[in-house]
Structure formats: C-alpha cells, structure tokens
## 1
Amino acid sequence: MTVLTLGLDRARTEVRTFFRAGDTVLFTFAFPVIMLLVFSTAFSELSDFGEAPDGSVVNAATYYLPGMVASGVLLIGVQSLAVDIAGERADGTMKRLASTPLPVASWFLGKIGQVLVTGALQLALLLAVAALAFGVDLPTDPGTWARFAGIWLLGLATTSLLGIALSRLPRSGRSATAVIVPITVVLQFVSGVYLPFSQLPGWLQSVASAFPLRWLAQGARSVFLPPEFAAAEPSGSWDLPSVVLWLGVWLVVGLVVTLVTFRWIRQDD
C-alpha cells in the first residue's frame, strides 16, 4: 500500500475516533456557534458597525462571523489537534503506532485529513446558523468563495501543522489542556476575533501581527464584510498578499518544527 493510501485509511480511522468523543465533538462544533450567538445577541441593538454598498446596515452577526470562522480554524487545527496528540502520547496510542508499519507521513496525512473533514463540517454548521438564524447575507460571487476556500485551506493546513508541533509542549496528557488552551484564548483576544483589531493598542497590534490568527481573521473579513470595511484595517486595505505571506511563513515554521521535533513517544518517557 502506498503512503497516500495508508494516509487516507488513517484519516477515516481518525474521523471515526473523533466522533466517538462526544465532549470533544460538542465543544468543537458548538463553541464558534455559541460565541456568534453571544456577540450577536449582546450587540444586537448597536447600529454603528457600518453599512453595505446597498445602504443596508451590517448587523452584529455579520460583523462577528469572520472572527468566528477564524476562531473555528484555530480551535480545530491548533487546540483540538495538539490536545488530542498529547493525550495519545500519554495513553500509549502513539507508542503502539510506532510498533506498526505505518509510515510517519501517512500518520500526518491521517491527522490533517481528520482536521479537513471536521473543519468543513464545523464551517458548514457555522455558516448555516449565521444565515438561517441571524440573517447574515453570505457572498454570492463564486470568485469570492474561491478566494475564501484558498484562505481557509491555507489557514487549516497552517494551524494543523502548528497543532502537531505544539503537542510536544505538554509533558502529560493531563496537562495538555492547561498548556494549549491559554495560548489559543490569548491569540483570539489580540487577533481581531472578539475585539476590533484597529482598536487595540499599536504595540499589541504589532505583537499580534506576528502570529497567523490575525491574518486569518483579516482574510475572513475580506470575504464576509463589505469592501468599505477594509479602511478600518491597519493598512487601510485587506492586504491579501500579506495574509497569504504570513500564513505561508507559519506553515513552513510549523512543518519544520514538526519534522525536527516529532517523536512517537517523548524521549523522557
């Protein structure tokens, strides 16, 4: 069997395993939707988010949707993957896999395949709730959706590799959540997910701009918000070349760190 065939088979196994963990499934799929509900309801009376080209008011749900999309990618790529792999190292799953003929490349493909499937389902649920429950007008231009697909796939690949790399940080499966979750929470607050990025202090914008979530959120805003909102970005535009550049840089960083540090088991075990 080829590496690709084994990877696809491993991806099917990973997806089945993921959906057997009810609490993980609930958190992964419900969290972005719940946060969209919270912000849309809390700020539903505000009317100063801006206007669309046709003069209609951009409501709170439309304004916060891009941030929730970016947050979902981070949670399913970095947080969920890092915590799961750390747990698999702790419970012996990784050690058992090391004794099988499964190539490391196939294992990587399996993990990324699982993230791709669950990420697509999470995104579909979030967009459906936004459109049906909150009246968000989703893009109708195929070119816009094509641009979004490219940004989303690049972001998912980047966060997946970073999740695998960060899984080395926790020294035990029990400590994985305590180590990984604070990282993702802080990034969400400083990257324009929950708070308008332009309202953050300049030094904090500079710090956040060194991390991929800030650019992923900006790329999502370029898809779901009217073009006039680009003026609120630090550069005064959506600056999509920088979005691709920084996500690409972190993709390479995640890949290099993963290849250098990956072990089936911890060396200190």
## 2
Amino acid sequence: MNDIPDATTVVFFRERLRRANVIDELFEMFENYLRDQGLEARSGQIIDATLVPVPKQRNSREENKEIKANHLPDGWNESPKRLQQKDLDARWVKKNDINHYGYKNSICVDAEHGFIRRFVVTPANIHDSQMLPMLLDPENQNDYVWADSAYSGERFKN
C-alpha cells in the first residue's frame, strides 16, 4: 500500500508529461507495443465521452467574459500565484438539466481487447460529435462502431 502513488503524485507527473509535450508520443509508443504483441484493433470500435469536473472558478462576470474571449483578465499576469490556480480552458456545459464545469474526455476503445486506441480531451462545452473524426481508428479492421446518440447524424452515417 505504501508503494502506490497518491492522486497528487499522479497529477503532478501527468502535468510534467504535458509540459514536456510527450503524451501523444508515449501513447503512440504504447500503441506500437500493443501491435507488436498481436493486439491489433480488429473487432469494431466503442466511442464515448465522459465529463471530467474541475474545481469551479470564482471569477467576476467581467473576468469570465475575458476568459471566454481567450484574453487574460487585467492584472492576472501580475500575480503568477493567482494565475497558477486558475483554469482558463475549462468550460460549462448543461447535460440532463445539470450544469457541469470542466473537460470532456472522449475515447475510442477496441471492442475485442478493451484498449483505448484514440483519445481527445476538450473543454466540456465541445459537442461529442465534433470529436468523431479524431476518434475513429482507421486501422480497425472491422466497420462496426458502437456509440450513443450524441454521435448520430449525417456526418456519422457517411
């Protein structure tokens, strides 16, 4: 039990990987390893998204307006410690009449092996269907795709 890293350690490690811009490279290395082991995507794809909540920001209406316009509110760049505690990328979305603040983690899972083959992380307000082209695995040898109604429509049928 003492050898298992706590959640904070994992978060800090992931942030270091993100800052080094190596997450996609590591994910591709893992994908190549799976292929080398004979675990190729063969039996269809399961597509879904999950809301990932983050702590709500306590900003004024004017500050929120600036953030939504992709501008840093006045005075924030003068306080690095305050800026470190602000999440400028998370967004609000309403799902089932409930407001959520954070991100959306969209994934494509190989139906046979259960491995995540593709992923996209976006602000929560981005609609699931917009992620479909980035999620579909062109190397999957089966045309079957299981997805909920968020992915339906002409774009998906083509």
## 3
Amino acid sequence: MKVIIVEDELAASDNLTYLLTKIDPNIEIVTVLDTVKAAVDFFSNPFEGILVFMDIHLADGISFEIFDQVTINIPIIFTTAYDQYALKAFKVNSIDYLLKPIDQEELSDALDRFNAQNQKKGMDEQQMQSLLHLIQTKPNTYKQTFLVGIGDQLLPIKTADIAYFFIDTGVVKAVTVQERSYVLDIKLEEVEEALDPTLFYRANRQFIVRREAIVTIKLHFNSKLLVEVHPPCSERIVVSKAKASDFKSWVGR
C-alpha cells in the first residue's frame, strides 16, 4: 500500500510513519508534504499512492485550501486535533477522521475501513453520520498534569497553571502563571501532542503559548507577529508569516 502524508510537524509525521509501518510493514510512504503549496504542486502532477493522511492545519494555511486548487481522487483520512473541522472534511474525499494524538488501534481500524471499502470514493450519508457520532463521542485525553523532577522528588504541576513552554539551550521548560520555571524531561513535540490545541498554540519551534498568557500581539517585519506574554519572557516570541493568519484566528476564536 502506497501512502501519502500531508503534515507540517516533523514529530507528527514521524510518529504516523512509525505507527503505519508497525501496523503493516508493507505500507510505503511515497512522500511527506508540509505545506498547502507543496501539496498542490504534488497533486497537480501524476503521482503514485492509494491513500492520503492529511493534517488540517499546515505551515502555510488550512489543508482544505488544497481542494480549491486541485482534485484528489483517492481517499483521505484526516488527522488533526481540531474536531470542529469534521463537517467540512465530509465534503471532500474523506473516509475517516482521527483526532490527535493518534492512537494505534484507531489508526488500524481506519486502515481496516479503507480496505473494506475497496478504495471507494467519497462517503454515503450513513458513513457520514457514523463518523460524526464517532467524533462527537470521542473523549479528549489531554494532559492535565506534568511531573517535574526537583532533587529526589517529583512535583505535579497542573497544566492549567502553565503560561507557556519553551526550549532554553536545548532544555524544555514550563513557566507557570506564578512566574515559576520548571525543567521538563520530554521534547517540546511531545508536550505539544499532549496539550489541548484550543488552549495552547505552537508559536514556533521554540515556544508553545497559552491563549490566556498572551498580553499583546504586535506587527513585526515581513508580516511576522511579535507576541508578548505574562509572565514576561526574556526571549522574543515570533510567529512566522506563514502561521500569522492561523495564529490570529486561533487567538480570536
């Protein structure tokens, strides 16, 4: 089975690749595309592949913009943390919808449904209703507490108390609203996967910020954004031009 992945987060695409090949070693990843532009360029030409895994939020926009420019005639399984996009996903060639962080068993079930449908195009009304029910009833298992090591003790820090996460000289730190900083023994990509995306946003490779911690958003050169947070951060938090529109939409949601 030849598969195409459309995903802008390297950790997420690596994890999906790992899970797919673990489920079926015969699965071949044809390519990984990380932007709307790259996807449009790829699908505009003849390509190999019988199934697409597609994230909804990409580095330069929303993946639904791809379908305004090209037609994708093979089935799609959407992978995203934003289930409010479900109904729109139904309107394209979607056969399933997986919420992040992706569970291996649910991924396997999605592949089984793909194989059972024998690559049929589109979805009928019954499938759409079943998928909608699945999305509405699937619980969100976001991390509520982080354990941080202090000396020979483990201290539980509530996610609700954390204003932002950032990388400081290779070390991931969490800063609380009480202006305390804690070292986390995990990667920032793992932190991102564990957080509720309606509350936290990956501003750039270095920072994940909580919406309530944002004080001001300033226009920066080259259409970038400069974000100021509380507690104040000694490092500048810059949102790229590619992510600026999506970030503003998230803040104003």
## 4
Amino acid sequence: MAKTHEIKVERRNDEGKGASRRLRRAGFVPAIVYGGELAPVSIQIEHKSVWHASQNEWFYSSILDLSLGGDVQKVLLRDMQRHPYKQIVMHLDFQRVNENEALRLRVPLHFLNQEVSPAGKTSGVVIMRELTDIEISCLPKDLPEYIEVDLSALKVGDIVHTSDLKLPKGVEIPDLRFGKEHDHAVVVAKEMREEVEAAPAAEGDAAAAAPAAAAAPAKKDEKK
C-alpha cells in the first residue's frame, strides 16, 4: 500500500476569476474537492507547500490527506493547471476516495537492474522504455506508489509486455481484459549493430556502379 501524505488546506469563500487572482497574489492556490456523498468544497493551499509537493512523484499517484482544520479527507489529485511559462501552480482538483470503491489511475514504472542484465552488458544494444507509467485498478488500501520492472534477466531481442509485469496483490491492469492487442510493450532490447553494418555495404554498391556507368559508350544523336 502506498503511503499517505498530509496537505494542509483552508476553506475558500470567494469565487470567480478576480478572487482567484487576488488569492494567487497572496501566495495561495485555489482548489476544489469533489466526489463521494459530500458537496464540492472550494479550498486554498499555500503555494510554497504545493510547489514543493509537486516536485515529488508521490503527489501524482498517492492518496493524499487533505487536512482542513483537523478534518482529514482522503483524496487523489485529478488535475493540476500550471502557468504557461512561470513556475506557478494555477489550480488544483482533488477527488475524494471511497475505501470500498476501486480506483483507476496511472502510476509510474520504476526500472531496476538494467545495467546488470545480459542486454545491458552487451555492446551495440539499445534498451528502449516504451512506457514510463501505466494505468491500474485497485482498492485504495492496495494502491502502490509505483510498479517495479525487474530487468535483470533481459536479453537481446526481448520485449517486456504489460502482462509480464509483477503486480502487487489486489492490483490489475484494466487494458488486459480486452485481449492481446492491448498487451503493450513496456521495454524493448534491440540489436543495432546490423543497421550500422548495412550502411557501408550500400555505399560500396553505389561506388561499384559508378565506374560501370562511366565505361558504357555514350549514344550518338540520331540524324533526322
């Protein structure tokens, strides 16, 4: 189960664009909490704490404890709006979590032991990571912060698919319910040496063709 992280918030009474601009100038971020049986609540969070939290992977894939004057609600971050070019968080959306309802969200993949794998130790091999995160489904109590991908046995030519991932208990990948065409590649170990060696051969063929073309007699113009 993923760890929870506390975010302190305050209730926000003013609404509208003007109120949001004033709030940002004062160093706060407007936000909203919705979902469950409770009505949506407008809140505000200190920008400094939000910005610090946003630099961590857990902020996007963990259950967060929103603390409003001692009242703690478990939520997930569902949307974050950033300024186009400034390091400013503009708005946040949080969704309340029901411990008895399955969640669907994307969690990051952590790749382990690539450097000690047969493919990682072979010259001329490129290991491509086709996915960096994946959508999972599980109850809140089973939510992992990330999924580990052990590459210690990866060999040249291997492809690791989503069906090969070792998932924690209670966690599944919803896409796999829809058949093999949804079993996507996660990691590919590809031999690049053949492509590099093919280029000189092609140049050699072109060089050999040039003298032959030069030796061929030129056709004389036909007299009319």
